[in-house]
Amino acid sequence: MTVRKARRVPSGEIIPEPRPGRILPGVRAEALDPVLLRTFVAVADLGSFTAAAAAEGYTQSAVSRQIAALEDVCGVELFARGARGVRPTPAAEHLLPHARGLLDRLADTARALEGLRRLDTGTLRVGAFPTANAALVPRALALFRTRHPGVRPVLREGTTERLLPMLEAGDLDIALVSTHKVPSIDADGLVPLLDDALLVALPAGHRLAARERVPLADLADEPWIVADDPNAIAALRARCEAAGFDPRTPLRVAEWISKLGLVAEGFGVTLVPALAAAAMARDGVVLRAVTSGRPRRTVYAAVGRHARRSPPATAFLAMLREAAAGLGERGDDLHL
């Protein structure tokens, strides 16, 4: 290992002797240590190894070693040593604006990361099934906006089957799912939020509309309105079979406004999550609790693996819990 000689100048600084120039195959970007660049800029600005050492909190010998290390990386001399200190060489003058720009970008990156950590900026990507978007998600997003206005929320609506692949691909941070659509995600990523009762929507003039609670078996002869989706049909069938009958499903529509429109006109009945009941109130329809079996579903927040340490996702999960606690377990005493 070659040791660079040094000499002491009248100012008292120990200045390493220049290394003879040598041709390097190339400078790798990762070899440009920001610490070395910061010291290089300080020496160039202050014109002295000693002054740069005092400004940066190093010893003078440490600054000398850092400049020598950077010169080794670059393969050129960066400072002309003299009795009154040092001055940048033409190579250093060429490097200096690039070093300043890189240090500025690093500082900007550090500020951006700190903003993400402090929830001053960033993006939160949420997916939810439609009835969760009726009350639970808006309440949680409202809390989130109040406390972290700099974070931009992005919301996507869809079925569990559509949202989970997006979550697993990293396109969503959190997805709201429910038990009747069995999630294909590891249990560690599932956070229970609330148990949601399912109510039955009846025409206002229905023979059972005056009751506070309706046995599911008493609706065995009714036409059932359900989404034309194998999972939704299977979930309805499982609940009705537990009550002793196989439901007839001649009317298959997905949108709640369409379902309730058909109910209002007497074309059938449908199950409505209590979570969204208040948002579904309309003339000609009454919602009643179900006595037999009391069908329920558990609502979960599924957190993507990539987002389990994400500050926005962690904060929003806490607000989902808060919003869910405010909604409570609805439906048992809800009569609309």
From TrEMBL:
<keyword id="KW-0804">Transcription</keyword>
<dbReference type="GO" id="GO:0032993">
    <property type="term" value="C:protein-DNA complex"/>
</dbReference>
<dbReference type="InterPro" id="IPR000847">
    <property type="entry name" value="LysR_HTH_N"/>
</dbReference>
<dbReference type="Pfam" id="PF00126">
    <property type="entry name" value="HTH_1"/>
</dbReference>
<protein>
    <submittedName>
        <fullName>LysR family transcriptional regulator</fullName>
    </submittedName>
</protein>
<feature type="domain" description="HTH lysR-type">
    <location>
        <begin position="32"/>
        <end position="89"/>
    </location>
</feature>
<dbReference type="InterPro" id="IPR036390">
    <property type="entry name" value="WH_DNA-bd_sf"/>
</dbReference>
<dbReference type="GO" id="GO:0003677">
    <property type="term" value="F:DNA binding"/>
</dbReference>
<dbReference type="InterPro" id="IPR036388">
    <property type="entry name" value="WH-like_DNA-bd_sf"/>
</dbReference>
<comment type="similarity">
    <text>Belongs to the LysR transcriptional regulatory family.</text>
</comment>
<keyword id="KW-0238">DNA-binding</keyword>
<dbReference type="Pfam" id="PF03466">
    <property type="entry name" value="LysR_substrate"/>
</dbReference>
<dbReference type="InterPro" id="IPR005119">
    <property type="entry name" value="LysR_subst-bd"/>
</dbReference>
<dbReference type="GO" id="GO:0003700">
    <property type="term" value="F:DNA-binding transcription factor activity"/>
</dbReference>
<keyword id="KW-0805">Transcription regulation</keyword>
